[in-house]
Structures are given as C-alpha cells and as structure tokens.
Fold these 3 entries.
Entry 1:
Amino acid sequence: MSLDLPLIWAGLIAFAVLAYVMMDGFDLGVGILFPFLKEEHERDQMMNSVAPVWDGNETWLVLGGGGLFAVFPLAYSIIMPALYTPIFAMLLALVFRGVAFEYRWKTQAGKFFWDWSFAGGSTMAAFAQGVALGALVQGIPVEGRAYAGGWWDWLTPFSLLTGLSLVVAYALLGATWLIWKCEGRVQEKSFVYAKRAGIATIVLIGAVSLWTPFLNDAFRQKWFVWPQLLYAAPVPALLGVCVLALWQGLDAKSDRQPFFATLGLFVLSFAGLCVNFHPYIVPSSVTLYEAAAPDNSLSFLLVGSAVLLPLILTYTAYSYWVFRGKVGTGGYH
C-alpha cells in the first residue's frame, strides 16, 4: 500500500502553519497590547515574558513557507504573485519588530521609537497575515496554471475583515499569555484586555464564519448541505465549548485556562479552514495532487522532515520548560 504523500505533506505544512500561528501569535499579541500599558517596568515585564522564545517561534513560519515551495511548487508559484504585497508587508514588519526587540534594551533616548516599532511591527505583521489568509480563502484567479489576477485583487472587504480579526485574536492570545506568565499589575490589566478582546474575537469569528460559505459554492455545500455538514458540524460545537472555557477561566482568575481555551479557538478555526479547503490548496482552482512535486521528491523530503521535525519539537519544548516560571519585574523566577 503506497503512502498518500501529497496528503501527508499537506498535513505537515498545515501543522507548521498552525504551530506558527499559536506560538508566534501570542508574542505578536503582546506587541499589539504594548501601547496599552504605559509604565516602563510593565513593558519590560511584557517583553521578558516572550524574550526567551519569540525567535524560535518563527522557525515554524520558515518551515511552512519553505515546505510549500519545495513540496507544492505550483501552488507557491500561484499564491506568491497573488499575495506579494501583504506577504512583503508581513516580512518587513517582522524584521522591524525583531530589531526593536534587541535595540530597545540598549538605548534610553531612542526607547520610545523602538517601543512603537515593536508595537507597530507586531500589529502590521498580524494584519498582513490576516489579509493574506482572507485573500486566499476568497479565491485566486488561475488560468493555465498561473496567477491571472491583478496587483490589488487581495484587497477586498473580506480580506480586511480577516486582517482585523487576526489582530484582535492575537491580542486575545497575547493577553491570556500575559495572564499565565506575568504577575502583579500586568496580570490584572491583562484580565481586563482579555475580556474585551475575547468579546471582539467571538463576534469577528462569527462574522467571518457567516461570510465564508457565501464566497464559494463548494464552501456552502460543506457547511449547509447534508451529509457534508456532518463533517463540519463538530467545529462550531467545539468552538462553543472553548468560548465557555475561556469565560469561565477569566471569571475564575485562572492562570492557564484562558490561554489554552484561546488556543482551542485557534485550532478549531484552523480546522474549519481545512474543512473548506480540502482537497484544494488554492481554493476551487488547484488541488493538492495537481500542485504536488513528484513522488520521488516528496519521499526524499519526508525522510529529512522525519529527522528535522522531532529536533524542532524537542528544542521548542525544552525552551518552554526551562522558562516555565512567571515573570516578575526582575525577570523569570
């Protein structure tokens, strides 16, 4: 029995993208919330909470993008021209944010500039990611195995909505991370921001979810036509469970429950996207099997990933374990 290599690789790339969204999402969220805490010692505490892990979190972005290029070259050649602007905006924002991470500790006169670079870079990166996602979901015009649209096709009301949604959702994830990892005034304020961002996130998830099925007949059939809806129905039901867990954790002033409930919201939202996309990698235009590289290449790369992925997971888990404590005004303890 031969392996379904394109499907296996689609799962691996989806896992890398989800890992990036969850791990880099909370430190982008910390940056989005940065302007709302005014005291310098509070901002230092926020940055210290993500300083040991933020650059490692971005490993998953490289793995997802590189995997798409190597394994699904046709999809890469279609998606990149369609999304050049938001993707380059995201990369520039991540660079600015990374530089700000290092430089704000080394200057007093320029700290204001680097604080705003960190916040602005985080917000722009989140917004650009959401816009790129919305543009992909709404569909990319393809003719003759090539992108057939224009420079600004990615800019639509739906993509702007998904951009805003991801900024707010990352803010929620960042706030719940600060609840878990910080103490004192930062934690107290984060409970307030988490409730506000939680309400906005739930509303925006509902708006995007209601709009998405009407972008594409295939999406609509999966969510509203029997028996296809049987596969999709558990997603909104489980989303409801995560919302209840989030609110219960916030009301109980739990350290960890809000963060993991928010991760559940992200996982289930991502699962809903996968339901919409399968078996396409470019919705309604190119399937996984049409976009995949030859099986020999997929097999060779799969052997490499069998070595690489456990190493990445091991050092990621170890770094989180080492810095598992809370962050006070003086750092981890």
Entry 2:
Amino acid sequence: MIDHMPEDVSPAGRDLRAYTDQLRPLHPVIRNNVGDWVLLRHADVVAAALDDERFSSAVSRHLQIPNGLDGADHTRFRAVIDRYMTQDALAPFLQKFEDVAVQLMASLPHGKPLEAVGGIGAVFAVRAQCAWLGWPADLEPRLLGWMEANHAATRSGEDQRTAQVAADFDSIIDSVLAPRLADIDAAPDDVTTQLCRDTVDGRPLSRAELTSILRNWTGGDLGSMALCVGVLVAHLAGDAKLAGHLRQASDAEVDRVIDEILRLDDPFISNRRVTTCPVQINGREIPAGARIKLIWTSANRDEAVFGENNFAPDTNAAANLVYGIGRHVCPGRYLATCQLRIALRALLAAAERLEFVAGDPPEREVSPVGGYRRVPIMLG
C-alpha cells in the first residue's frame, strides 16, 4: 500500500473518470476531504457491495426505497418494486417506448448542430418514463427544467440548493399522486395508480413510501438516462464502423455493446454505504460508522480486471458493474436496457451518420456527475 496520499483528494470540479484512473493504481482506498472512505478497485467495491451485514445501505436521514434499506425491510419493498420491472410487466410498454423514440428522432434536424444529452437523451427519458408511469405529457417542460436544475445543484455541492431541488421534485410527484389518492376508484389505470393500490406487509403503501419509490423511478433515472444517451452517442460518433454494425445487430448484441460502452464511461458514479463494525479494506483499517463510497466508474475500469480497457463486450460482460451487484443491484436494469436500445436503434435508423461538430467538442461532466455535460453532434 502507498502511504503518501495526494494533499487534495477532493474530486470537486474534476472529470471523475480521468481522476480515478490516475488514483486507482497507487491509491485503491482513499479518504477524501470530507472524511468519506472511497473504494476505487473492482474487488473492493464488489466485496463491500456483497457484504450487507458490515456495509449498511441505511446512509440517509431521508426515506430511500429500496436503496437505503437493509435486511428484511429491503426484501419486502424490493418484492413490491420488482413486480413492476419484470419482462412480462414491461412488455406492454415496449411499443410505446418505440413510438416515443421514432417520433423524437424524426423531429431532429439533419446537417445542423444539436446537443445529445439535453436535446435527445433528456427528452427521450422524460417522454418514455411518462409513457410508462402514466404521467401527463404537459409535465415535460417542468421535468426537463428540473433535470437541469438538479445537475447544477449536484455539481455545486451546496446543501441548500440540493434540498431545494429535492423539494421541487417532491412537489411534481405530489401533483401526480394527489388526484389519484383523493379518488383512487376514479384514477386512470396506469402504473402510478397500480402502485397507489399496492401493499406491503398487507397494508397500503404510505404516501411517503409512494413518494420515495416514484422519486427513485424518476428523479434518479431521468438524469441517468440522459447521461447514458450522451455517452452512447459520443462513443458512436467516434466509431462509425461500430455504429454501422449496430444497425444490423441483434437486440442481444446491441445490449452487450451498450453495457460495454457504459462500462468504459459509467455515468452511474457511485453508491454509499456505512460500516456497522470495524473493517479492513486493502490494508486500510476503517472504523465502525464510517461513510463508504463505492465508485462504480472506477471499478469498471480497473486494470486488474479489464486490462488495457479495450472495447470487448463479450469478454468483459461477466465483470461489468454498470448496474451494481448483489441484493441492491439496480431493479430497473431491464427497463433501462430496453429504453436505451430502443432509443439507440431509432437514432441510428433516422441518421446515416453521427458526426461531432467541428470546433465544438464534447464537454465532460464533473464530479459528482458522470459522463458528458454536452455532446454537440450533427446527423448526416
């Protein structure tokens, strides 16, 4: 273990992928400027993610379902959530996602600059999630505005701004929940209403529980989907051969390629844990009650597992941690995979070429946000 740490290990203002690539070979476990213990290597991240007893997910003072639950509580609520995420449950929505994607891509200009994260990814994410949940289309401007404000607040690291955007999003959720809960019998038969009628332990879900679940399905997923689209578009704009190949590839192959691109540039930056007892990780003694950050972006680029990080979808699939691992693996993996594949296929069908804009290169996001802030492209 290297004892001499950099004086400033704060990731603030840095491209976290590049920064962790520098740190990981010499400093697999670091303690950052705010006292968090940060795990950068694949083996350490996997070990902590699989050890529910020593690494608790109950890290927030706010209700977070299912991310912030442990043990039997997590199992009960995860059973509710997983019912909405199966292939059978999502099958009726795949055509709706395709309709959203085809309509959006057909509306994009050709031969003129456009921005892939906000102009393609964010719009598709909002429309697809609203189609799934049964949310009204007129929420789109409000949701798009919130996504932009949320990323800005996250970048700032200011607690007051973060709290305000969280409150703003809860008010959006309340605008959807309130009329349904006021007269559930007259509510539209959609996924949000089904959730309002659902139960855990034989009782109805509370309003706070409903809000937390819907916040997880939307507040977290909308921004992540937009960032994923930006990463995919940036990669394919730089690899015309791969883009051409994907036009003829099977769904399974497209899914593997998407997962590998996101492994190389994972916008799902991290998850948090807290130690329930003293632990030793990679030679570092860490006390009970310590805040732990599992950096998926770094683990997914660990040279000990992925060598020189060459693009190899089949070879790297088994160790890919884009959606996490263990009991807390992302419940929406299948949903996200379907939506990303559908969006990518529609974009490639609508354009013969994806090209970067001369003189306006992609702009990386900075910690704690991953991927790209802007990906200016033109469709040919």
Entry 3:
Amino acid sequence: MRREKVLVDPQQRDGKAKRVIADTDPAGFFPAAAGLGHKILRLLAKEPNYPSSIARELRLYHQAVYYHMKKLEEAGLVKRVSQRTVRGGKAQLYALASDGYAIEFDVKGEEFGPSATLSRSGRLGRFMREFITEDGQLDGWIVVGSPEAHGPNRTQGRDGHYAIQLGFALGQFVRLPRTFPVKLDVDLKAEKLQASNLLVVGGPRTNVITAELNQYMPVRFSEESFFGAIVDASGRKHLSEFDSVLTKIRNPWDPSKVCVIVAGLSGAATKAAVIGLTNMAEQVLAGYSEEGGDFAVVLHGLDMDGDGKVDSVEMLWPTAKSYNVTPRG
C-alpha cells in the first residue's frame, strides 16, 4: 500500500527530513527507473519546469518528454502545479510530487525515538514558507487584538490567546524566536511594522489590522452591521457566529511580504479558523498552490463531541465539504 513517509538521516543533526512516497510494490515506480524518467525527475528536483523546457535542456523530441511525463504523473511521482497559455495552447508546469520514493519491506523496523518534526504538516510548512527563514528563524509577527478598548468602535480583543496554538504550529518549523514575536494590533501600528510578514488573528471588530486588510482580501467581512457577515467570491453571505475566514494575501504595505489572516465573526469562529489552519491543514489547505495568487477559504466551526466548544471545522467555500476531524488535545 502506498503511503507518504518521513525520511530521517540519523547521522544529521539539523532536524531536516524528507517526505517520500513509500510502497511495498515496486511496479508503480517503474517509470522512474527508465533512463529518461530518472533524468526528468532530477531536473524537477532543482525546480518546477515545463516539458518543452526539459526537452530543450535534454536535447530530445518534445513527444518523448511528454510521453514520459505522462507516465510519471500516472505513477504519482510528478504533479501539475499551474498552467499558462502559449500560442493558443496550454503549457503545464510540473513539479515533484514528493522528495523521493522508496520500496518498503514488511519488517519490524528500528526504535528511533519520538520526534516532534515527524508529525508536522508539509502543506502547512509550504503555506507559511515566507515566515520561515533558511536557518529556521521566524520572519514576521503574530498580530492579536488589544485587550483594551481600541479602534473606532472601542472594542476589546478577547481571542489573542488563540495565538498560543499558532505558536505551537509554527514551532514545528522554526527555532525559539530571539525577539518576542507577538504584537498587539495597536503596537504594530505605533511601531510602523506593517511592512512585514503578518499572521493576523481575530476579526475586524477586535483587530484593527484585520480591518485595514479587509479591503484587500478575496473573501472579506461586510462592513454592514459592524462587520456582521462574511462575503465570499460568489457573493454569498455567511452570517453564523461560527463562520470564519482563512486567507493569505500579498501585504499591501510591502508586496514582497505576505499576510495570513485567521479571523471569524466571533471569538469561537476565530478559534475554528485556527483549528483549520493548525490541526487540519492537509484538508483545509488542499486548494493552496505556491504558484497561485491569493488564497481564501470560509470555514464553519463545529462541536463534534457535544461539549459546547468548537473542536472541528467544515468548509463552506469554495466547496462545502465536512471533514469531521477532531484535533488532538
């Protein structure tokens, strides 16, 4: 049975691991064993590429490269990440589907000890890549609403403690920050730090940074009734107190940076968005593409265990799909 595995080199102490496709049957990997298939994979290991460019680099006929690329895609070893129109046709950009592949035998294995990094979400890491430097430092700020009355409506932020969950999630990818990484929204403005990578927690009612970013979000909060609804790209309004937005956009103060906004119509809804990002990233971020533009989903908080508290989410937009996954802890 084919599964994704984490490959760790016990001789390396840098904490890095590779995600590989492992299977007990080698037949599915035969396209990679062919000479040309292996060459294509080695080129894609450097960066995503187009079959036409690969053909030119290998000095081969395009048809031969397209044939092998199709076989590699059918084997699950490469994936299409985007496409563009060229002279009336569509050019597909391909990338590796994983860091490698392996044949696994049915043996007991070796006790290796627990590692926090082994359970981390690769999709979450890719989604937050701008916040993670090459040497494992955090590049950005977590922004929460001030607990004091502030903003034009003199509201108080009461969802800042959800940043703790986000801190645990980011801690899978970065070292302990040298500088305290959490800023109140009012302090971020006062210190003029908006032109940074920002992870913003809380809706526009309680976080003035969310309110200022709202106009740039592909899915935004309606300003009617004091941000009382979420309007998705189809124009549909989401009005439940458990509805929230998870979005990633270019930072309007500095387009080389990004803003990730985790915000709801209430504190419970913001909690739902945090759960979606941290505990259910593989499902919630399934539509995210590193090659694409802005990303957004509308989530609805669920109480799966009946204790009166949000512990799971379902996606309301772009597709209504309930995952019914209760996060650990």
